[in-house]
C-alpha cells in the first residue's frame, strides 16, 4: 500500500471513529520482512549456528549429556541476551539466531544422549520449542520455534504410538484405523487451533497475545503445509531399504492426508491475505503427493485407485460447492 | 485459479501495520474487528468459498492425473500392455476433447490441457518402460517438455507453464548432474568435453532467458501467462543452477574448475542486480543475488582460508553472520524505498 492509499485509509478509519485523530500523524510502521529475505537470513543463520556449535564443540570438548546441556544453555542464554540487547540491530539478530540454533541443537543432543530415546527427545524438543515461542522476543525466531515444536510433536506422537526407536527402520505393519487415529491425533488439534486463531483474529489482536499468536500462526501454516514430510524425511524416500516386498502399513496414507492439510493451510493463508504462504502451501501439497508415491506400505495399484477415487470425489464436490457459491451471501 | 489468487482488496497492507495500530491506540476487540473490515484485508465469505472451490477442483484434477501416473508405475500384470496404452491415450483424448469443447482460457479447458500435459508424461514413461528404448531418464523429461510445448501454449495458463518449467529443469539438471553418455543433449555437447560446472550453465541460461522474456516482452499473450510468481520461479531455477555450477568450480575437484563458469556467474550476478535496481519493482532478484553471493563467498573463504578446524568454523560462522546481516540491511532498505511502488 503506497503512502496516499495509506493516508486515505487512515482518514476513513478516523472518520468512522475506529482510530483517534492522532493516528493521522502516526509514523509508518517499518516494512514487514518479505518471506524471501527471511529465507536468506534464516538459512545463513542456521548454517552459522551449525558452524558455531562445531567451533564450541572442538574448543571446549563438551563431554556427555551434562557437557552438551551446559553448552546449549550458555548459547541459548547468549541468544536471549543478544535479542534483548538491541531489538533493532540486524547484526545482533543474526548473531542471536545463530547462537539460538546452536544452543537448541546442543540441548537436543544432550537429551538424546541422556535418554537414548527418540520419543523422549522429541517430547523434550516440543517443550523446549514451546518455551522459546513464549520467551524469544524475535518474530522470526517465534515462527521457527512453532514450526519445530509441531514437527517434534508429530515425531513424538508417532514414536509414542508405535514403539520403535530407530527412525531409519522399515515401517511396521499398521492397519487403517490406528493409522488414521495417529495422524488425526497430531494434526486434528492443530487444524482446529489454526482455524480458531484466524476466526478470533480481532480478539487476540486487541491484546498483547498478538506478539505470540501472529508469528505462531505463520509457523503453524508452514507446519501444516510441509509437516508430514518434514517429520518423516527418512521414511519418505527409503531408497536404501532392501527391495523385499513392503509390509502392509496404512501409515503410507499420511502424505495423502497431508495434501489436504496443506490445502487447508492455503485457504487459511488466503484468509490472512498472505500470498507467499498460499504458494508455499500449494507447493507443500504437491511435495506430499510425491511423498505418497514413494512411501512404502501400500501398493502403487492401491494408491492409484485411491487417487482416482479422491479425484472424482473432489471434482464432484467442487461442482456442488460452485453451485452454492454462485450467489454472494 | 487466476494469476494473483484473487487476493483480498487490502492485501498490500501489512498485518504488522494493523497490529501496530491496534497496539498504539489500545483498540478493543470490536474496534479491531472494524479495522479489519474497513481496511479490506479480510476476504468475504463468498470469496473464501470461491477460493475453496478452485482449490478443490485443482486438487481433484491433480488427483486424477496422479492416479493415472501411479497406475502406469504400478505396472499391473492383470492389465495388458495395449490396455495400459489405451487407458492413457483415452485420458489424453478425453482431455483434448474437453479442451476443444470449453477452450482455454475457460477454466475447464485449462484444466483439461494440464491433465493432458501430465498424461503425456505418463504415456512417454510407459513407452520407455514397455519397449525398453534404452533412453536415459533425462530424455524422458526432455521429450516430455519439448513435445508438450503446443499443449502448454494452448492452455494459456501460468500454472501449466509452471508445471512445464519444472519438467524442463528436471531434464536439464538430470543431464548436467548425471552426465549420461547418450541422448540428444549428449549429441549436442559431447564433442566439447565440458565439465559439470560448465554444463550447468545451460539450465542457468535457459531459465534466465525465460525470465527475461517474461520481464521484457509486453505482448498481452506473454504477460497473461507470465505473472510475477512464475518469473520468480524461473529466476530461482536459474540461480540454483548458477550457484551449483560456481560452487563446483570453487570447492569441487580440479577438473571442475571453469573460468567460463566464474565469468558467467559474475556477469549474471552483476547483470541481474543492475536490472533489478533499474526496475525498482521487485526485491526478489536481489535476494537471490544476495543468497547466491553468501553461499559462494562462504565456499571461497573455506577454500582459501588457511585455518585449523577450530579457527575455520569460527571464521565461517562469523562470515555467514556478517554477510547475511549486511545483505539483510541492504535488501530491507530497498523494500522500504520501493514499497510505495509495487507490492513486494
List the SSEs and their pairings.
The complex is a heterodimer of chains A (about 325) and B (about 350).
Chain A: H1 3-15, H2 35-60, H3 64-85, H4 90-115, H5 118-135, H6 139-161, H7 176-199, H8 201-205, H9 210-230, H10 233-236, H11 254-271, H12 275-294, H13 300-325
Helix pairs in contact in A: 2-4, 3-4, 4-5, 5-6, 6-7, 6-9, 7-9, 7-11, 9-11, 9-12, 11-12
Chain B: H1 15-24, H2 29-38, H3 45-74, H4 81-101, H5 107-131, H6 137-147, H7 149-155, H8 158-178, H9 184-189, H10 196-199, H11 201-216, H12 220-225, H13 228-251, H14 259-279, H15 284-304, H16 309-338
Helix pairs in contact in B: 3-5, 4-5, 5-6, 5-7, 5-8, 6-8, 8-13, 11-13, 13-14, 13-15, 14-15, 15-16
Counting copies of identical and different chains, the oligomeric state is heterodimer
The span between the termini of chain B is 21 Å
Tell me the number of helical segments of chain B per DSSP (H or I, 4 or more residues long): 16
Dominant shape of chain A: flat
- Look at the helices and sheets of chain B and give the structural class: mainly alpha
N-to-C series of helices and strands of chain A: HHHHHHHHHHHHH
Secondary-structure-derived class of chain A: mainly alpha
What would you report as the Rg of chain B, rounded to the nearest angstrom?
24 Å
Radius of gyration of chain A: 23 Å
Succession of helices and strands of chain B: HHHHHHHHHHHHHHHH
Number of helices of chain A: 13
Greatest interface (CB-CB under 8 A), with counts per chain: A-B, 93 and 98 residues
Proportion of residues in extended strands of chain B: under 5%
Largest sheet entry of chain A: none
Helix amount of chain A: over 70%
Taken as a percent bin, the fraction of beta residues of chain A is under 5%
The main β sheet of chain B shows up as:
none
Give the overall pLDDT of chain A as a whole number: 86
List keywords for this structure.
heterodimer, A: mainly alpha, flat, B: 344 residues, mainly alpha, 76% helix
Q: Can you walk through the features of this model?
A:
The complex is a heterodimer of chains A (329) and B (344). Chain A has helices at 3-15, 35-60, 64-85, 90-115, 118-135, 139-161, 176-199, 201-205, 210-230, 233-236, 254-271, 275-294, 300-325. Chain A has 329 residues and is mainly alpha-helical. The longest helix of chain A is centred in the N-terminal third of the chain and has 26 residues, at 35-60. Chain B is flat. In chain B, helix 6 packs antiparallel against helix 8 (158-178). Chains A and B meet through helix 1, helix 2, helix 4, helix 8 and helix 11 of A and helix 1, helix 2, helix 3, helix 15 and helix 16 of B.
Amino acid at each position: 500500500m503506497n503512502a496516499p492509499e495509506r493516508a486515505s485509509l487512515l482518514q476513513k478509519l478516523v472518520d468512522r471513529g475506529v482510530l483517534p485523530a492522532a493516528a493521522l500523524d502516526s509514523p509508518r510502521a517499518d516494512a514487514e520482512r518479505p518471506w524471501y529475505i527471511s529465507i536468506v537470513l534464516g538459512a545463513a543463520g542456521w548454517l552459522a549456528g551449525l558452524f558455531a556449535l562445531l567451533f564450541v564443540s572442538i574448543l571446549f570438548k563438551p563431554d556427555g549429556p551434562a557437557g552438551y546441556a551446559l553448552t546449549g544453555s550458555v548459547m541459548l542464554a547468549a541468544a536471549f541476551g543478544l535479542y534483548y540487547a538491541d531489538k533493532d540491530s540486524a547484526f545482533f539478530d543474526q548473531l542471536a539466531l545463530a547462537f539460538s540454533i546452536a544452543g537448541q541443537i546442543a540441548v537436543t543432543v544432550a537429551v538424546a544422549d541422556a535418554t537414548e530415546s527418540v520419543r523422549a527427545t522429541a517430547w523434550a524438543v516440543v517443550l523446549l520449542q514451546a518455551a522459546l515461542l513464549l520467551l524469544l522476543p524475535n518474530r522470526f525466531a517465534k515462527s521457527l520455534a512453532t514450526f519445530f515444536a509441531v514437527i517434534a510433536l508429530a515425531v513424538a506422537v508417532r514414536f509414542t504410538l508405535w514403539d520403535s526407536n530407530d527412525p531409519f527402520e522399515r515401517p511396521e505393519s499398521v492397519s487403517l484405523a490406528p493409522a488414521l487415529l495417529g495422524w488425526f491425533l497430531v494434526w486434528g488439534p492443530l487444524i482446529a487451533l489454526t482455524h480458531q486463531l484466524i476466526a478470533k483474529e480481532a480478539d487476540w489482536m486487541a491484546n498483547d497475545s498478538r506478539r505470540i499468536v501472529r508469528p505462531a500462526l505463520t509457523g503453524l501454516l508452514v507446519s501444516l503445509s510441509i509437516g508430514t514430510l518434514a517429520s518423516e524425511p527418512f521414511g519418505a524416500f527409503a531408497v536404501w531399504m532392501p527391495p523385499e516386498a513392503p509390509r502392509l502399513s496404512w501409515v503410507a496414507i499420511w502424505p495423502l492426508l497431508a495434501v489436504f492439510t496443506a490445502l487447508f493451510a492455503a485457504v487459511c493463508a488466503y484468509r490472512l491475505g498472505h500470498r507467499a504462504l498460499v504458494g508455499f502451501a500449494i507447493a507443500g501439497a504437491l511435495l506430499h503427493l510425491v511423498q505418497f508415491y514413494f512411501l512404502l506400505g501400500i501398493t502403487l495399484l492401491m494408491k492409484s485407485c485411491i487417487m482416482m477415487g479422491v479425484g472424482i470425489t473432489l471434482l464432484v464436490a467442487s461442482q456442488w460447492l460452485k453451485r452454492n457459491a454462485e450467489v454472494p451471501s | 485459479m487466476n494469476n494473483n489468487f484473487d487476493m483480498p482488496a487490502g492485501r498490500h497492507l501489512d498485518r504488522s501495520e494493523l497490529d501496530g495500530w491496534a497496539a498504539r491506540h489500545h483498540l478493543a476487540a470490536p474496534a479491531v474487528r472494524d479495522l479489519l473490515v474497513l481496511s479490506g484485508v479480510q476476504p468475504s465469505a463468498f470469496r473464501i468459498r470461491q477460493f475453496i472451490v478452485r482449490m478443490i477442483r485443482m486438487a481433484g484434477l491433480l488427483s486424477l492425473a496422479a492416479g493415472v501416473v501411479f497406475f502406469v508405475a504400478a505396472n499391473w500384470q492383470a492389465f495388458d500392455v495395449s490396455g495400459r496404452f489405451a487407458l492413457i491415450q483415452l485420458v489424453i483424448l478425453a482431455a483434448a476433447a474437453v479442451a476443444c469443447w470449453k477452450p482455454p482460457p475457460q477454466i475447464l479447458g485449462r484444466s483439461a490441457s494440464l491433465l493432458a500435459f501430465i498424461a503425456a508424461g505418463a504415456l512417454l514413461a510407459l513407452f520407455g518402460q514397455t519397449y525398453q528404448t534404452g533412453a536415459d531418464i533425462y530424455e524422458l523429461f526432455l521429450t516430455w517438455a519439448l513435445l508438450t510445448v503446443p499443449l502448454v501454449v494452448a492452455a494459456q495458463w501460468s500454472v501449466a507453464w509452471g508445471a512445464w518449467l519444472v519438467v524442463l529443469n528436471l531434464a536439464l539438471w538430470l543431464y548436467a548432474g548425471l552426465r549420461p553418455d547418450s541422448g540428444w543433449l549428449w549429441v549436442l555437447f559431447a564433442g566439447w568435453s565440458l565439465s559439470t560446472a560448465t554444463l550447468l550453465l545451460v539450465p542457468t541460461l535457459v531459465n534466465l532467458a525465460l525470465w527475461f522474456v517474461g520481464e521484457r516482452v509486453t505482448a498481452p499473450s506473454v504477460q497473461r501467462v507470465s505473472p510475477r510468481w512464475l518469473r520468480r520461479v524461473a529466476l530461482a531455477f536459474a540461480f540454483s543452477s548458477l550457484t551449483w555450477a560456481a560452487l563446483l568450480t570453487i570447492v569441487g575437484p580440479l577438473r571442475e574448475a571453469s573460468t567460463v563458469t566464474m565469468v558467467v556467474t559474475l556477469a549474471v550476478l552483476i547483470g541481474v542486480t543492475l536490472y533489478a535496481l533499474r526496475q525498482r519493482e521487485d526485491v526478489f532478484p536481489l535476494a537471490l543475488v544476495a543468497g547466491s553471493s553468501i553461499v559462494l563467498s562462504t565456499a571461497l573463504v573455506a577454500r582459501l582460508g588457511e585455518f585449523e578446524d577450530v579457527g575455520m568454523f569460527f571464521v565461517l560462522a562469523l562470515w555467514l553472520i556478517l554477510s547475511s546481516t549486511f545483505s539483510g540491511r541492504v535488501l530491507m532498505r530497498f523494500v522500504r524505498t520501493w514499497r510505495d511502488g509495487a507490492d513486494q
